[in-house]
């Protein structure tokens, strides 16, 4: 997978100045970050606590993040991917 440096060098080789190449590499990195998801796992059946993929915990009074119209993690900003708790799977 490409990284910031690869994208920067590609744009410099294409004749862009260093500022434009750095801007293009920054934009590429932002797009890659948006593709990542933050996995939210409910802490057991019927619990209000959700553990986040970015290492935090969030409490909901009722429902799931999607029930509460939450699309993005309030801690890291990535899209939320809800995963049921282990007891909910069985």
Describe it.
Strands 3-2-1-4 form a 4-stranded mixed beta sheet, with no helix packed on it. The mean pLDDT is 81. 8% of the residues are buried. The chain is built from 3 helices and 4 strands. The chain is α+β, with helices and mostly antiparallel strands and 90 residues long. β1 and β2 form a beta hairpin. The chain has 2 domains: 31 residues, no CATH class; 54 residues, no CATH class. The longest helix is centred in the N-terminal third of the chain and has 18 residues. Helix content is 36%, strand content 18%. α1 runs antiparallel to α2.
Structural descriptors:
90 residues, alpha+beta, four-stranded mixed β-sheet, 3 helices, 4 strands, rod-shaped
Write the layout of secondary structure elements.
Elements: H1 4-13, H2 18-35, E1 38-42, E2 49-52, E3 57-59, E4 80-83, H3 86-89
Parallel strand pairs: 1-4
Antiparallel strand pairs: 1-2, 2-3
């Amino acid at each position: 997978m490409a990284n910031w440096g690869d994208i920067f060098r590609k744009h410099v080789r294409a004749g862009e100045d260093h500022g434009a190449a750095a801007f293009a590499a920054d934009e590429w990195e932002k797009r890659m970050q948006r593709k990542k998801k933050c996995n939210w796992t409910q802490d057991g059946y019927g619990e209000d606590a959700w553990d986040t993929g970015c290492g935090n915990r969030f409490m909901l009074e009722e429902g799931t993040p999607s029930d509460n119209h939450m699309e993005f993690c309030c801690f890291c900003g990535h899209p939320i991917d809800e995963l049921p708790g282990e007891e909910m799977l069985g």
